[in-house]
Amino acid sequence: MTYDLVRGMYDILPDEIPWWQLAEDAVREMARRYNYREIRVPLVEHTELFTRGVGEATDIVTKEMYTFQDRGERSLTLRPEGTASVARAYLTHGWQTREPFQKLFYLGPMFRYEKPQKGRNRQFHQYGIEVLGALDPSVDAEVIAFAWSLMEILGLGGRILDCKETACQSFIAQAPGSADHLCPECAAHFEAVQGWLNRLGLAYDMDPRLVRGLDYYTRTVFELMSSDLGSQDTLIGGGRYDGLIEMLGGPPTPGIGFAGGLERLVLVLRERRANDVKTERLDLFIATVGEEGRRVGMKLATELRRLKKISISVDIDHRARTLRKQMAQANQLYARTVIVLGEDEARVGRGKLKDMDSGEEREVPLDPESLAELVYPACDDGCAGGCAGGCGGDSCSDHGN
RNA sequence: GGGAGCGUGGCGCAAUGGCUAGCGCACUGGGUUGUGGUCCCAGGGGUUGCGGGUUCGAGCCCCGUCGCUCCUCCCA
C-alpha cells in the first residue's frame, strides 16, 4: 500500500452504494411529497460565513473547521454544515425581496476535523431541509413531520423524538433547561407547536435539557434518535434559527430546519433492513468466440446501448477469456440472458439466446431492436426497494444481499 | 479532549521467542478443441502498520509513532 487514506476520509465502494441510494432516494422522495426544492451550494465558503453564522464559540468553529488560504490569500473553509450556506444563498440571490418564502433541501458532503469514530468521519454526508421566511408554528410542525415521515418511509419509525423549546439563543446559554423561563411569545409559540404535533399525531418527549451545539438556534429545537446506534445516536437534529439571516446581513427573517447524517442512516438501514436491498441484474451478457465474434459482439453491444426506445443493460468480455470463463462472468453479474457469438453466428446473422435461470436456449436474429425486446425484463412482481427504470418488474434479483 | 483494546496477503483468520509466516474466501489458469452457478487440480499475491530497542534469534517481549475500533465527550 503506497498511499494511505487521509485520516477521517473513506471510500464508499460500489457494493455499499445501494444502501446510500436507498437513503438518498428516501430523502428526495419525502422532499417531493412535502414540496421542498433541492439546492446545491458550494463545498467551499468564506471562513467568516461560518464563524459568524454558526457562532464563534461553537466547537465547530473553534476546533473543527477545515480552513485554508487559497492562492489569493482568502481564508476559505470546507463547509462543516449546510444551514449557513443555504442562508447565504438566500441572500446572495435576493430571495428576501423576490421570494421570501422558501422550502429547500440539500444533500452532500460536509467536513469537520474531529476524532473519527463509527458513524462519524471527517468527511461525512448530511441531508437537511430549511424553511425560510415563515415564523408560524405550523412550519415547526411540518419540519418535524418531515423528519418523522422520512424515518417512517425508511422503516425506522417508532424511534424517540425529543422536542424542546427555549427562549432565545442567549437564553439558552444563560439558563438551559426550564420551560418556565420562556419569554411570553416563545411560550405561546411552544404551546402552538405542541398543539400541532398532537393534532398531527406525532409522538414526542420533552427534554428540558436538550441544547443544540450551534449558536443560531432559537425557540424550537429537536432531535430524532435511534436505539441502534452506539454513542452517535442522533439521527436528525434541528431547530429554529430566526436570527441567522439577520446575523448574515439580511433583513429579519425567520428560519427553521434540520440536518441528518447519511452514514448513520446507512448504518441503521444495514442493521434493520439487511434483506431489502436487491442486486441489480444485467439484462444481457454477450459472450464472444474469436476475432469475428468479438467484432460482431462489440457492434451489437453498442447498438443495443444506443437504442432510443428501449433501455437494457448489456456487457461483453474484454479480456479474450474462454467461453467457459465468460459464462462464469455472466453468472457473477446475475445476467438474465447470454448470447454467444462466434464465426457461425456472424455468418448467418443469428445467435443462440440463453435464459440463465432456466437454461433454455433459442435461436434469435441479431437485429438490435428485436433482440432488445426479447431481453427486456417482463413486468411481473414489482421489485421492492425501487429498482430504476420503467419496468415495474423483475429488474432485481434475490441473489445478493 | 480523556480512557480502553487492536494492527499478519484484497477480506476474514492462524502461527509454545526458534526451520522457506500458514488456512479459508476472493483472484488467475486448467479439467481436450464453443456454454454458467457445484466439484477437482494448479498458480500468483505478505520486507507481519512504521521506527527503534531487548535477544544467539522477534509476527510474538519493551518503547515510541501512525492508524483503526469501542467508551466518554461533542454532535448529524
Account of the 3D structure:
By secondary structure, the chain is α+β, with helices and mostly antiparallel strands. The chain folds into two domains: 14-272, BirA Bifunctional Protein, domain 2, CATH 3.30.930.10; 279-397, Anticodon-binding domain (Rossmann fold, 3-Layer(aba) Sandwich), CATH 3.40.50.800. It has 14 helices and 18 strands. The protein has helices spanning 17-34, 47-53, 59-63, 83-92, 95-98, 137-153, 169-174, 184-199, 244-247, 262-272, 290-305, 323-332, 343-348, 368-375; strands at residues 37-38, 44-46, 66-69, 75-78, 102-111, 123-132, 160-165, 205-206, 218-225, 234-240, 255-261, 279-280, 284-288, 314-316, 337-341, 350-355, 361-365, 396-397. An eight-stranded mixed beta sheet has the order 1-5-6-11-10-9-7-8, sandwiched between helices. A five-stranded mixed beta sheet has the order 14-13-15-16-17, sandwiched between helices. A three-stranded antiparallel beta sheet has the order 2-4-3. A hairpin with a 5-residue loop joins strand 16 (350-355) and strand 17. Helix 1 (17-34) packs antiparallel against helix 6 (137-153). Residues 160-178 and 381-401 have low confidence and may be disordered. It binds one RNA strand of 76 nucleotides through residues 1, 4-5, 7, 59-60, 63-64, 81, 110, 112, 114-120, 124-128, 212-214, 223, 230-232, 234-238, 258-265, 287, 289-290, 293, 322-332, 335, 338, 340, 342, 344, 352, 354, 356, 359, 361, 399.
Question: Which structural traits does this protein have?
Answer:
elongated, RNA-binding, Rossmann fold, BirA Bifunctional Protein, domain 2, five-stranded mixed sheet, 14 helices, 401 residues
